[in-house]
Amino acid sequence: MTETVIGLDVGSKRIGVAVGEGSFAFPHATLERTNVRDDVAKIVAIARERGARTIVVGDPLTMAGERALASEKIDAFVAHLARAWDGAIERIDERLTTAAAQKALIGADVSRAKRKQVVDQLAAVGILETWLARRRR
User: What is the pTM assigned to this prediction?
Assistant: First the structure.
């Protein structure tokens, strides 16, 4: 049986959610941010519904690979998530995942309105694919 994993691209306005099964990651949802308690509750509900045991959160490092203000905000979010989630939480470098997702959508001639709806999901897919690839090695 393959393990189901949830991937998150946590932004200030939206959270992209992806689901990984086996070696593949798929876009799942874009959550509009409300407050951290409700955001975490939605993520935990998705993870439980999908039978996940691990949540992978993108860590927004600087281009030099250093931690900055954005990483500190994710630290706080992960702390809230850890209080609500009894499974594993792992973090992985997410540098350029949103930029890569935007570039792919622009290359596919997706409208700006549609890109806004799915870019965070695709960034979450990129985060999760990176984690899955590292795990396979």
Answer: 0.84
4-53 pLDDT per residue, tens: 999 999 988 999 999 998 888 999 999 999 999 999 999 999 999 999 99
In the numeric block, the tokens 């809230």 are attached to 80
Which spans in the chain are helix H?
A: 36-50, 69-84, 97-107, 112-136
The domain segmentation of the chain, as residue ranges, is: 4-136
Instruction: Using DSSP, state whether 105 is helix, strand or coil.
Output: helix
Helix (H, G, I), strand (E, B) or coil at 68: coil
Q: Which CATH class is domain 4-136?
A: alpha beta
